[in-house]
Specification:
The chain is α+β, with helices and mostly antiparallel strands. 61% of the residues lie in helices and 7% in strands. The protein contains 24 helices and 4 strands. The protein has helices at residues 55-61, 64-76, 78-88, 94-107, 112-116, 124-137, 143-149, 155-168, 174-179, 186-199, 205-211, 217-230, 236-241, 248-261, 267-273, 279-292, 298-304, 310-323, 329-335, 341-354, 360-366, 372-385, 391-400, 404-417; strands spanning 2-4, 7-14, 24-33, 40-47. It has a 4-stranded antiparallel β-sheet. Helix 11 (205-211) runs antiparallel to helix 12 and helix 15 (267-273) runs antiparallel to helix 16. The longest helix is centred in the N-terminal third of the chain and has 14 residues, at 94-107. The N and C termini lie far apart (65 Å).
């Protein structure tokens, strides 16, 4: 790339790995034209081969704009580069606009004031891009301006402003966000719930609990996520109620949240959700019960080891390992023969956590499993149980397993058992 006489020029070329596609080569030149306060970039094209590949797309995919604007900044000062990137926010090309946003975010606080000056533009596409950029930069100085935009007549502006306020995470935004949590537009309500979850102010809990009854399922999901992030005990029972939501994605998110909150009050309802018609709900319920660690869940989780969906069997095995009740030993031993290797591996892991000698022989037999990950889990489990009966079988694995990683781990566990 060369700069001379007001022009930046160079060549973009590449040779595809697919030899059926001919090599590609294009030259380009950029004219620096500093008109008014905002230097403009005017590109001209010179083809050096007959290829039909779009020149503009090649420029956007390359680092041409970065190099060109960097040179412009060196010639006319840093503000010129900022102005150029802001001008490119207006471009209809999504990839170029994204490039401009990323460049401005990298510039950081120096770009904030010029960007904020564009918030009163009548060009909504530019305004949305400016708001997004300011949110990603995260400077609180623009919070007041973004709060004002929550009242904009355009719902896309309200939504993007809420998102940006969530990124900045300034508590001054909490009350204004709560004020529009019942906005007529569901996208705005979603953005508000998500923003409140990021700010994590307890004042948002009650409004978010109310949002669990929103007519839009995505708003309900975002409200659950926000309450999960804030972690106020007051939210547990309202979230439990959403395990009966008509939308399966909401029920799935509810089970996930209850696992994060780890309140034993949720156990009876999560046990019921192990019978949900949707596998994802059953899977997240099993996972949540494992995180809570309440022994009331042991028998239902043992039943979960027989679920028709392998992800439910997998999470049930993991949960039983976390709860640590010896009642699960025999069912987990049976799960070592599951048709899905991930379930067999999780069952072996769980048996290692339970450390019951009844599992030693079954785990030894698993050292011959066709999947290396299952064999590895069996080795780890035998290492935790520390029964000397495992020494000879582990020696065979250390000498002859087809996987170098498995052989290495077997040797490490043997060293521990032979002490």
């Amino acid at each position: 790339m060369v700069y001379a006489g007001g022009k930046l020029s160079g060549t973009i070329s590449f040779e595809p790995k697919d030899k059926n596609i001919p090599p590609y080569k294009k030259s380009f030149s950029g004219v620096i034209d500093p008109l008014g306060n905002n230097p403009n970039i005017q590109l001209s094209e010179k083809m050096t081969d007959p290829s039909n590949a779009p020149f503009r797309d090649v420029l956007v995919a390359s680092d041409f704009y970065e190099k060109f604007i960097e040179t412009l900044g060196e010639l006319y000062g840093p503000s010129a580069a900022v102005d150029c990137w802001i001008a490119l926010l207006e471009d209809e090309d999504y990839n170029l606009q994204t490039k401009a946003i990323n460049a401005l975010v990298k510039i950081g606080k120096r770009a904030v004031k010029p960007l904020a000056n564009k918030l009163d533009t009548q060009n909504n596409s530019l305004k949305i891009a400016v708001i997004e950029t300011l949110g990603k930069i995260g400077d609180p100085v623009v919070v007041t301006s973004l709060i004002e935009l929550l009242k904009d007549k355009d719902s896309s502006i309200r939504s993007k402003s809420a998102e940006a306020l969530g990124e900045i995470r300034d508590k001054r935004a909490v009350e204004p966000l709560i004020a529009i949590i019942k906005d007529e537009d569901s996208w705005v309500r979603m953005a508000v719930a998500e923003a409140l979850g990021k700010i994590r102010d307890p004042k948002a809990v009650d409004p978010l609990i109310s949002a669990l009854r929103d007519e839009d399922s995505w708003v309900r999901i975002r409200a659950i996520e926000a309450l999960m992030a804030i972690r106020d005990p007051k939210a547990v029972e309202p979230i439990i109620s959403t395990l009966k939501d008509r939308n399966s994605s909401v029920r799935t998110k509810s089970a996930e949240a209850l696992g994060v909150l780890k309140d034993p009050k949720a156990v009876p309802d999560l046990i019921k959700s192990l019978k949900d018609k949707e596998a994802d709900v059953r899977m997240r319920s099993a996972e949540a019960l494992g995180k809570i660690g309440d022994k009331r869940a042991v028998d239902p989780l043992i039943e979960g080891l027989k679920d028709e969906d392998w992800t439910v069997r997998l999470r049930s095995a993991e949960a039983l390992g976390k709860i640590g009740d010896k009642k699960a030993v025999d069912p987990l031993i049976s799960a070592l023969k599951d048709k899905e290797w991930t379930v067999r591996s999780s069952a072996a892991d769980a048996l290692g956590k339970l450390k019951d000698p009844r599992a030693v022989e079954p785990l030894i037999s698993v050292l011959k499993d066709k999947e290396s990950s299952v064999r590895m889990s069996a080795i780890e489990a035998l290492g935790k149980i520390k029964d000397k009966k495992a020494i000879e079988p582990l020696k065979k694995v250390a000498n002859s397993d087809p996987s170098e990683m498995v052989r290495k781990r077997a040797k490490e566990v043997l060293a521990i058992l032979q002490k």
